[in-house]
Amino acid sequence: MLVVMYPHEKKTLFLDPLGEGKGKTKVCLQSTRAFMRMKGCKVSRWTCSTLPHNRQQDSTSCGVLALKFAEKILLGESIEFESSQKAVHELRLDIATSLLRESDDLSRLCFYCGMEEQDEEHWICCDICQQWYHHQCVQRPPVDKPYLCPGCT
Fold this sequence. Notes:
2 domains; three-stranded mixed beta sheet; 5 strands; Znf_PHD; zinc; zinc ion binding; metal-binding; zinc-finger
């Protein structure tokens, strides 16, 4: 599901790839009002609406469609788009490509603890997956023998 809040307009846009229905829209409105009330806003005229949109055709594409709804809204475009199985598969690939392209460089992080490289630390590389680890994070295996990380053993 995607909930877009417009505080200055006192409204919420609610989009559910499975379909909204009165019950879900009411829960969205109640939740939005409660959240905004906690923020100190007056919520008596707050509304919750939806827009016509494609519905998911399977049990796994809800996240893909919600992300596409968000993208279209941010770009100020209509939220109508192709949602066939083939189109959803292509959207998944586009999302994965965007995430990889826009992600930070993680090459200086230990694949076990996620911490950055320290000058005095020793590193070891898995001979299969080629991921780097702080030597101490993986219980100091012998450096003169082939090393397999926990994920590859």
